[in-house]
Hints:
Elements: H1 3-51, H2 59-70, H3 75-87, H4 92-104, H5 107-113, H6 118-142, H7 166-198, H8 201-208, H9 212-226, H10 230-243, H11 247-259, H12 262-298
Amino acid sequence: MDFIQRELIYIWYYFDIQLRQIFWYWILGMFAGSAISVFFKDKIHNCFVRLSNKNIGAAKIVIASALGIASPLCMYGTIPIAASFSKSGMKDDTLAAFMMSSILLNPQLIIYSFALGNVVLIVRITTCLICGVCCGMLIYIFYKNKPFFRFDGFQEPENHDTSPNILIRYIKNVGRNIKATGVYFLFGILLSALFQRYVPAEAVTMLFGGNEAFGVLMAATVGVPLYACGGGTIPLLQQWLLDGMSVGSAASFMLTGPATKITNLGALKIILGGKRFLLYIVYIMLFSLIAGLAVGVFI
Length: 299
């Protein structure tokens, strides 16, 4: 057996193990995410609309952040929805909380994250919720009497779930989810297999685990270029955590990754403009560092 054949066997071995470990989380995420999108998306957004009419102070921003996590839409679906809410009179602080948390997390990604363990799952949900709340509060404080977003030109997103047969709508939505995430999911497992084969566990511990401050900084930085799809990063995070990555570093990676994903940045640049776009980048990097360090203190 030559060198290449032996290495391919090793890589397949690691790939197969990881696939067996998280495949069913991916499947469950597909079906549950599609169910929320088909059956509950409008209810979630209607709750958000009703929220704008309530005078409940800062609690409105907290609820808006929670609804952003519950929303199944991607960034390019969330922005047109937010634009329509803005036209109806919803304030930018509430919109910011909703959009920020929606960028970071959704029901499908929550289910994927069960593969990382209960502690990491709770940390992910909590830090994403707080990130949305802090974003909304900062805009309330510094942009109370001036606009923060520019929604000119955005229209309601096209609704693909239009079949009169609800089962057909659901099946088509599952198919779109598989098409959108399947390649990234398999690529993430392949990257994880390559890491297991060629990157010593001690190197992961040294980068992301030993020195908490340095590990969080490295995770925040690595999250920017490596993050392409939420499902695709789960295999990597799972292996890194097994190899010694701290939960604080994982929290930082899970914040900067989706927040700086290239497709999300492209959409945000349009509605923020240059100056506010830079403020967004500074905010997410600082928050991820602080959150990662705080998680490291308590966990």
